[in-house]
UniProtKB/TrEMBL annotation:
Residues 416-815 form the Glycoside hydrolase family 65 central catalytic domain. Substrate binds at residues 454-455, 714-715. It comes from Vagococcus allomyrinae. Keywords: Glycosyltransferase, Hydrolase, Transferase. InterPro entries: 6-hairpin_glycosidase_sf, 6hp_glycosidase-like_sf, Gal_mutarotase_sf_dom, GH65_N, Glyco_hydro_65_M, Glyco_hydro_65_N, Malt_Pase/Glycosyl_Hdrlase. Belongs to the glycosyl hydrolase 65 family. One of its GO terms (biological process) is carbohydrate metabolic process. Residues 120-360 form the Glycoside hydrolase family 65 N-terminal domain. The active site is at residue 593. The keyword Metal-binding does not apply. It comes from the Bacteria. PANTHER family: GLYCOSYL HYDROLASE-RELATED, PROTEIN-GLUCOSYLGALACTOSYLHYDROXYLYSINE GLUCOSIDASE. One of its GO terms (molecular function) is glycosyltransferase activity. This is Glycoside hydrolase family 65 protein.
Length: 893
């Protein structure tokens, strides 16, 4: 196959198709000096070629490559979706095709950034380069970096929260924050008579950061120049995926143009604050009281206590490496420990140290364990031990979770990036010992304060299919907070369990009461807690877990209790409406957060949100089925635990058939009662005025208007029902409710709502991608899927990745890949497959687990191959196939 040779000349770029006939040639007027700026249009040009090519070779000299060249080469490669190599490297390889393939394969497992752009862009790179293991999350900063607007090192620990009061316009608001822990990662140096090395645009000559997704090892190679002294610094960082409390850094310094005294500096800094999210900076950001700082030889111990939640965090560090032959001088101040090692360094020689850290936290009731730990903390492991243990653990995780795509380099890379970050945010290994769930923004940043949202409905299926035991632990996080959810319901005047919209430490409602509109600079009421559908997401996840694992112990001990309490909440919330002659559910918000209330209403919430109501019907139906599957003894126990009577259960079944939806003559299901009376937005006008209109609510507010008055949506709302449930199931729900819609109602609803959706949440596009495929709009589906895949990698919201990755969309892209394109459906009795691979994909490979059976699946555009490790049956299309243990079944579809 051909490849494209790019020749950068003084006045033009020449593109030549090499190896193979005919040789095509295109010339393009752009001078050598500005090729970086023109790289996107160069890519556009290449993308119009109708030659098939396997890669690009560019004639730049390896020695002269700047960070800018490397970034531009990367952008070009990613924009044309094929590997790019240096012509000189290609000249020396025996098999050109194999070489391109190898470069492409490598590229799908790595993340590389060249250069340094302080501020939002750097913050976002750091989020994407985060290393972690489900307990610890370390942003991808350099160890010399300290908290500033330019860059933001942070150490996050899953489940570490602290409530803090802040005064806003004379009113005190309590926010429960996701706490940034003391920074034990700091390493830097001081050349004699020079200030301590700081990383900034002046001191950095070049920087390459590299993350190996397969092993979780972060590497940075920096060339720095401190007042003429040149040094090369190589940093490596690994958070041990196999042992949740451990991480290590290795730091190697080489003076490039001088010999002289260098002091290596290691700090254990407890003066840290929360500073990641700009709009929270005016709020209280100090969460820690320092309770202990000590150092002895190469070790330090730092203990802090969160001010309100009184969680004791203890971190212990050990320096190691050859330099430990030299004396370690320790200085302890009120907030930090500084360790220095002085060396006589020689030009061209390398000097390295390692810093390994162990981390633990203790709740107030664990005071005595905490005191013991402080005296003898877990000893650190060496960098190499952490790296090797972690590598093995990652291999095991990838074996189960990797999705492999043939024929599409970027989709493959981004699917791996998403899998990696989910496992950093929550891993089956660390989670065994934790009572946490997956936060909306991972262990990567502070947006949404590390809280747990309904995003679990997008996230859990990932764990469910690959690591069911982990899915169970995430559900147990909710079960342990069932009491708080019942209390929450009671306080609001309902019975049953009303889970909070934002959940943190103890399951109480953590949604802010006011929020800031960054466009208008004004604070306003926040009604988002009225998104009671979060309880339905939890119910859905419980059902999904049970339905795919058959975990009897879970469903009888915990799951059904949660389902019943959630159902009881909805029973108590549904009101009989005489006028409608139906039940109605008032005062809720759907997933579309732009609609908080009716126009000019002083009260938050809307009535009969279609998504909520349809999911309530679904829940009541599933409960009826589930109760028939339990034994009398199990039912008796549940009756005692929940107090839910037969009358209440009967009422649920009555509500299920008479809940209200508003549907127009065309078959459009109104997002909520009264939705059709809202005004239409002048999309053209706002698009022209603002360009990026994804936060249409804020734009309207700044314009003196309210999104409440308009038919505008942040994300899928009514349509979410079709993301959760098979279309046939939604049809049944509508029929049970005695609504009869036209055959093409899904297509009509998709068209209707897509025209009114600004995709203000990253969760939006991916849901619509699935729906578009369901109605046969393959191109639209692909476009939305691609945008969703790139949402964090390209920070498409223009700055939100800086505050953490978006775990919901990351997980959803993985699920949509399997469900929508792989055609996997695990919602029915039998696992079924109805693949429809995107045009560019030649093959798709993945594993999944259902009812304890592990399936390995390989799809091509025409065939499906499945191996199961037990005898079982599956559906391919409408046909039933029996699988024999470990025997591949291959069929054409
Ligand atoms: C979305 C919510 C989501 C939250 C946390 C918001 O922007 O609208 O649906 O739960 O982000 O990810």
């Amino acid at each position: 196959m051909n490849y494209i040779a790019i020749k950068l000349q003084a006045s033009q770029v020449q593109l030549v198709s090499k190896t193979g006939l005919p040789i095509a040639k295109a010339e393009w007027a752009v001078s050598l000096d500005n090729w970086h700026e023109k790289v996107l249009s160069l890519a556009e040009k290449i993308n119009t070629f109708d030659w098939e090519f396997m890669g690009i070779a560019i004639d730049l000299s390896k020695e002269d490559l700047t960070d800018l060249d490397k970034s531009a080469m990367q952008t070009l490669s990613e924009s044309v979706n094929c590997p790019l190599v240096l012509a000189a490297d290609l000249a020396s390889v025996a098999n050109v095709e194999a070489y391109f393939k190898q470069v492409a394969a490598e590229q799908t497992w790595t993340l590389d950034y060249y250069g340094y752009t302080p501020g939002k862009s750097e913050y976002s790179v750091e989020s994407l380069l985060t290393t972690g293991n489900g307990f610890i999350g370390l942003r991808g900063t350099l160890p010399e970096m300290e908290i500033s607007e330019a860059h933001y090192p942070a150490t996050y620990l899953a489940g570490l929260y602290n409530g803090a009061p802040s005064v806003i316009e004379g009113r005190t608001v309590i926010n429960e924050d996701f706490v940034n822990s003391p920074n034990l990662q700091y390493l830097s140096l001081k050349i004699e008579n020079q200030p301590v090395l700081e990383i900034n645009e002046q001191s950095l000559t070049s920087l390459h950061r590299h993350l190996d997704l397969r092993t979780g090892v972060f590497t940075a190679e920096a060339l720095v120049n401190s007042q003429g002294y040149q040094l090369k610094i190589i940093t490596r960082r690994v958070v041990n995926m196999a042992a949740k409390d451990h991480y290590s850094l290795s730091y190697e310094v080489t003076p490039m143009n001088f010999s002289g005294k260098i002091k290596l500096i290691a700090k254990s800094d407890a003066s840290v604050i929360n500073f990641n999210t700009e709009r929270y900076r005016s709020l209280t950001s100090e969460h820690l009281d320092i309770t202990h700082l000590s150092a002895e030889g190469a070790t330090t111990t730092v203990a802090v206590s969160t001010k309100q939640s009184k969680i004791q965090v203890i971190q212990h560090s050990e320096l190691s490496g050859e330099l430990l032959e030299h004396e370690v001088v320790n200085e302890i101040s009120e907030t930090e420990i500084v360790q220095t090692i002085a060396v006589e360094a020689k030009e061209g020689e390398s000097y390295g140290i390692e810093k390994s850290v162990t981390v633990a936290y203790f709740f107030p009731e664990e005071a005595s364990a905490s005191a013991d730990y402080l005296v003898s903390p877990t000893p650190a492991k060496t960098f190499e031990t952490n790296r090797l243990e972690s590598y093995q653990a990652w291999l095991g995780l990838w074996e189960k979770a990797d999705i492999s795509v043939t024929g599409d380099l970027m989709s493959q890379k981004l699917l791996r990036l998403h899998t990696y970050h989910l496992l950093v945010s929550g891993s089956p290994i660390a989670n065994q010992a934790l009572d946490v769930s997956i936060t909306a923004r991972g262990l990567h940043g502070e947006a949404y304060r590390g809280h747990i949202f309904w995003d679990e409905i997008f996230i859990l299926p990932f764990y469910q299919l690959h690591f069911p035991e982990m899915a169970k632990q995430l559900l147990m996080y909710r079960y342990h907070r069932l009491g708080a959810a019942k209390e929450n319901a009671k306080e609001a005047g309902y019975s049953g369990a009303m889970y909070p919209w934002q959940s943190g430490l103890d399951g109480t409602e953590q949604t802010q009461e006011v929020h800031l509109n960054p466009l208008s600079g004004e604070w306003g009421e926040d009604y988002s807690r009225l998104q009671r559908h979060v309880s339905l997401a939890i119910a859905y996840n419980v059902w999904n877990y049970w339905h795919n694992t058959g975990d009897r112990q879970f469903i009888s001990q915990y799951g059904t209790e949660m389902l019943l309490e959630i159902a009881e909440f909805w029973r108590s919330k549904a009101l009989w409406n005489e006028k409608l002659n139906r039940y109605s559910i008032p005062n809720v918000m759907g997933p579309d957060e732009f609609h908080e209330a009716y126009p000019n209403s002083q009260e938050g919430g809307v009535t009969d949100n279609a998504y909520t109501n349809m999911m309530v019907v679904w829940l009541f139906e599933e409960i009826a089925t589930l109760l028939t599957e339990l034994t009398t003894a199990e039912l008796g126990e549940l009756q005692i635990k929940t107090g839910i009577t037969a009358e209440k259960l009967a009422e649920m079944q009555a509500i299920r058939q008479q809940l209200n939806l508003e549907i127009n003559d065309e078959g459009i299901i109104a997002q909520y009662a009264g939705y059709f009376e809202l005004k239409e937005v002048d999309w053209e006008y706002y698009r022209e005025k603002f360009g990026n209109i994804y936060r249409m609510d804020r734009i309207l507010k700044a314009d003196g208007k309210s999104a409440d008055d308009y038919q505008v949506a942040k994300q899928a709302d009514t349509l979410m029902t079709f993301y959760n449930l098979a279309k046939a199931k939604v049809d049944d729900i509508l029929t049970d409710l005695n609504y009869h819609l036209p055959a093409d109602y899904l297509e009509k609803n998709l068209d209707y709502y897509l025209q009114r959706t600004s995709h203000g949440s990253t969760l939006s596009r991916i849901v619509h991608a699935q729906l578009a495929e369901m109605v046969g709009k393959r191109e639209l589906s692909w476009q939305l899927y691609q945008e969703a895949l790139r949402s964090d990698y390209q920070d498409i919201q223009g700055g939100t990745t800086a505050e953490g990755i978006h775990t919901g969309v990351m997980a959803a892209t993985l699920m949509v890949t399997l469900q929508t394109y792989g055609g996997v459906d695990s919602r029915g009795e039998l696992l079924s497959f109805a693949p429809d691979l995107p045009n560019t994909w030649q093959a798709l490979r993945f594993c999944l687990t259902r009812f304890g059976v592990m399936y390995q699946v390989r799809l091509t555009t025409a065939t499906i191959e499945v191996i199961a490790n037990e005898d079982t049956s599956i559906l391919i299309g409408q046909t039933l196939y029996d699988l024999t243990k470990n025997q591949p079944l291959k069929v054409s579809y």
